[in-house]
Amino acid sequence: MTSEDVKEYSLSEVATKNGKDGAPCWIVVRDKVYDVGSFMIEHPGGADLIEEVLGTDATKDFDDAGHSNDAITILKKTKIGILVETDRKYDKKKKKKPAEGGEKKKKKPAEDGEKKKKRSCKTRMTCGVC
Ligand code: HEM
Fold it and tell me: What is the pLDDT of residues 39-77, one digit of tens each?
């Protein structure tokens, strides 16, 4: 379980929910798991198109059909969970690689006792004449 209490499923578990022999009708789109059983019959592109991709990662099929935002909204309503982290392709909390040619520069923490000099509205400016 994640901190948001979203149920996690593995790709192999999703594969068993392929609509066959009364199995539920799940698909994966961008690492999220959707139970599209109730929507299939209403699908403007036909139930068979979704049927073909049940139990699989249908991200490419979904995207390739050039769906509208309305379609995405409908899809979101059928969300039941997310893939387990090891099966995720899109949602991994990837650590950014350091830029090529060296390590990313880190800001040095202030030395012991040395206070960071910050500009503020209280900072006095003197021009030296007045
Ligand atoms: C279960 C998730 C899906 C939802 C919620 C969904 C939703 C929709 C909606 C609302 C439309 C009407 C046009 C639009 O608003 O974009 C549509 C059309 C279409 N969808 Fe899907 N769709 C899903 C999955 C798929 C998949 C997996 C495929 C392909 C394998 C697909 C292929 C198509 C096609 C070809 C059309 C155009 C139909 C036409 O214009 O005659 N859809 N879909």
Answer: 999 999 999 999 999 999 999 999 999 999 999 999 999
79 lines ligand 1 (CB under 6 A): no
Task: Please answer whether residues 33 and 59 qualify as being in contact, where contact means their C-beta atoms are separated by less than 8 angstroms.
Answer: no
How far, in Å, is the centroid of ligand 1 from the Cα of 54? 14
Q: Report how far ligand 1's centroid is from the alpha carbon of 65 (Å).
A: 6
Q: How far is the CA of 1 from the centre of ligand 1 (A)?
A: 30
CB 16 within 8 A of CB 8: no
What is 8-87's CATH superfamily? Cytochrome b5-like heme/steroid binding domain (3.10.120.10)
